[in-house]
UniProtKB/TrEMBL annotation:
GO cellular component term, pick one: endomembrane system
EC code(s) of this entry: 2.7.1.91
Compartments it resides in: Endomembrane system
Keywords associated with the record: ATP-binding, Kinase, Membrane, Nucleotide-binding, Transferase
Pfam families referenced in this protein's UniProt entry, alphabetically: DAGK_cat (PF00781)
Enzyme class label: transferase
Any single GO BP term: sphingosine biosynthetic process
Residues of the DAGKc domain: 175-321
One Gene Ontology molecular-function label: sphingosine kinase activity
SMART domains: DAGKc (SM00046)
Organism (species): Exocentrus adspersus
Record-given protein name: sphingosine kinase
Amino acid sequence: MSMDIKINESNQNRILLEETFYVLTKKNCVFRVRLTNSGLCLIKESEKDIKEQVIPIREIIGCRCLRSKKQTKGCTCQSMPRSSSLEVVEENSGDLDDSDISAYLYIYAYIFQNSKGSGKKRERTIITLRFRSFDKYEDNNKEAQRWRTVIKRLIKGENVNTTSILDFTISNKYKENRRLLILCNPKSGPGKGKHIFQHKVAPILQEAEIPFDLHVTKYANFAREFVRGSNLYQWTGIIVVGGDGIVFEVINGIFERWDWSEIIKSIPVGVVPGGSGNGLARSIAYHCSEPWLPSPTLPSALAAVRNNRTTMDLVRVETTSQIMFSFLSVGWGLLSDIDIESERLRMLGGQRFTIWSLARLIGLRSYGGKLWYLPAAVPLLETKDVFESTSGSNLDLPSEVHLETQTGRQRVDSWYSANSRRSAYFSASGSSYQSTAGSGGGDPAQSVDKPVIYGPAPQIPCLPAPLPTSWKCISGRFVMVHASYQSHLSEECFFAPDARLNDGKIWLLIVHAGASRSQLLHFLLGLSTGAHASADSEGGPIELIPVNAFRIEPDMSETGYMTVDGEHVEYGPIQAEIFPSLGRIMIP
């Protein structure tokens, strides 16, 4: 066992590529850059000391080979330094600078850094390697492309060895074989979906050189119809930009396809938060120990480019008139009332829930009915996965690092610094934008009739049928019954601290009508930290129980709200059962 570990560590640390670079603005400052299977090692050697930092491959999202752009007309005196800002273009651009034979390799990384008061956060860092050791651009570009190909393959998870690197030539340079479908809801939450994609997600996709097709939703259930009727096999993943509502549409669109079992396994779904709640996106970040603040969209954007995926539990929900598949929650009572009735405050974003919580606490309601549930065995949960960075901080890297090889002949020009971050955002080759209402790809007539629901067969009795004696029943009045299969119902609602994306459990929260307003206030305040679930609640007015399935039969002489993933459904009998690890979700 120990021998295998040592061999594996040796393979991870074996040097694949190594080159010496210089910082011309500083005398006697040399960087030795090494690439191994585990990461990019920067060794800074100066007259005073030697410092080293390793950037793990998992923190590098992409790299691009570029050329310098032709300078604007002005002083052509070669003894004068160029502009302090380097502009770069694609190799085939007609605006490139033929006088510069250098090949520039831009490496994009999002590195864990310690942040005062908020633990860790990710910092965007650009490592620029300028290859100019040879007298011809073709030779310099060949070397830059070799580095790019190795880095791309390592990012993809391939184990590269020194023998295979010899085959990475300019003729077979790396080509991205992924293409993403982006479904963006411009009206989710505060209505910033398009802005979030254009400014937070598209630049990262472009850094990773991943092409995409963007479709902007135009009406309710657009995404559902699009997924149901399109040839999804042309894409390797689906990214939704918006709230939990568009996730609900996509998942149920998949289960309205006859080939649902193949789609659900082969095409993962990524979630970029743009709504009011963003429960699933927050749960994914929590599951992966990914910093949520100050940039909530960053974990989702990194998940889109990293091509990492994991399984996710899905829940089959049955009402008297429909069947659907849920990824987040089923609710009856207080939290559902807050969710639906606060829609009028949608422009306030997540604050709408806080304001309406106070209103509903003052005008407290309770609902009569029966609750059945099938208890789940509760084994010890594994420790939450923690993806800690092994990178050091001795170098204290700035947001941009510019290094270059030594030239083969004397040159009088110096490094032209790429200080503008905007220069690092390039047009994604082959990407397309679509926003026409007719781009759903489905048969318009099909959306008129109620679509067929496919999916796995139920393992519990149908809704009107009696339940086995193994189920437990509670009869009485309830302030709320809310079931979740994720840790967070929203960004600020830490509903089930022990929940994981694929733990195979429904976490059923029961608040009996005997709970006082004081207890409910402490409960609502505790939702932001998970404190409401820390104490032993069995038999009390507030209970949190792990179950495999449940059924609610409300007293139909009363009216109220029921929700599935935050979507309003008919008020009446409802039941749900979990299907562990049925879905596939992108993780950072």
